[in-house]
Amino acid sequence: MEEAPAPRTTWTFLTSHARVLMAISRDPWIRVRDLAGRLGLTERTVQAVVSDLESAGYLSHTREGRRNRYHLIGGRFRHPAEEQRDIAPLLEIFEAQGADGGQGNSTAQTVPEGRNRDTARSHDEPRNA
């Protein structure tokens, strides 16, 4: 008698890009090292994802002292099947839940499409390094 195959756990519904963007929306002062640890990714992968998100116009950053502060710019999904939908509602769903499934506390907001990245808003004060 054949055994049922073990369930595959090598894929997730959310890509690394979505997970990084959601984590940054909750904590715009987060370091790449901390993102990697929180998401179970390598620092190199997180840096590549952040670079992709910045190149695609979803994210920007400013250097403040020794830290980066990230600014969500927002935009639409990239896949043709979803390209008419904005990403903000997806971020809001997960912000309401919080990273650990608890109550979210983010004050980060995406900038409506077409707005300048300089007008992006995020937390006013950095978290402790």
Question: Explain this structure to me?
Answer:
By secondary structure, the protein is an alpha+beta fold. The chain has a single domain (16-117), classed as Winged helix-like DNA-binding domain superfamily/Winged helix DNA-binding domain (Arc Repressor Mutant, subunit A). 33% of the residues lie in helices and 9% in strands. The chain has 4 helices and 2 strands. It has helices at residues 16-26, 32-39, 43-55, 88-97, and strands spanning 59-64, 67-72. A two-stranded antiparallel sheet has the order 1-2. α1 crosses α3 and α2 packs across α3.
Strand content: 5-15%
How many beta-strand runs?
2
How widely separated are the two ends?
56 Å
Mean pLDDT: 80
Largest sheet: 2 strands, antiparallel
Query: pLDDT below 50 for ≥5 consecutive residues: which ranges?
Result: 99-129
H/E order of the elements? HHHEEH
Quote the CATH topology. Answer: Arc Repressor Mutant, subunit A
Shape call? globular
Rg on CA atoms, Å:
16 Å
Task: Provide the number of structural domains.
Answer: 1
> Helix proportion of residues, in percent?
25-40%
At the fourth level of CATH, the homologous superfamily is: Winged helix-like DNA-binding domain superfamily/Winged helix DNA-binding domain
By secondary-structure content and strand pairing, the structural class works out as alpha+beta
CATH C-level class is: Mainly Alpha
CATH architecture label name:
Orthogonal Bundle
User: How is the largest sheet built, in terms of strand order?
Assistant: 1-2
* Number of discrete helical segments: 4
